[in-house]
């Protein structure tokens, strides 16, 4: 696997319904994932058997939130903006000095490939620092057909 840089970029302008979770511990992630799946259902998104785009969002949400909880500082705030053109996922933590670092030349059995995965699932991704918080974000499409992964 080649070198992947997680680009320093501002958050795109996202408009839509905003869903937010404040997380303090990894043990809260299962409930947050269930809450995200439930919200997807309330906006009429197909069940995962019919379309995997919703599960791709849940997976990206889980990867970015778990990274922030493991490597950042609490509180972690995970935000999803459900817009007409896709989802904007933004996860912030209180460790602005530690930039996202995708694993390089690591055995996949050792883990640490979440940023690579999110980059492949997204159409754009990046990170920035604002008011003492590091924000790591990704834009994901609401459909998986004709999706072009983000350039890395």
UniProtKB/TrEMBL annotation:
GO terms for molecular function: ATP binding. Keywords: ATP-binding, Kinase, Nucleotide-binding, Serine/threonine-protein kinase, Transferase. It comes from the Bacteria. Residues 24-138 form the Histidine kinase/HSP90-like ATPase domain. Gene3D superfamilies: Histidine kinase-like ATPase, C-terminal domain. The keyword ATP-binding applies. InterPro entries: Anti-sigma-factor_SerPK, HATPase_C_sf, HATPase_dom. This is ATP-binding protein. The lineage of its organism: Bacteria, Bacillati, Actinomycetota, Actinomycetes, Geodermatophilales.
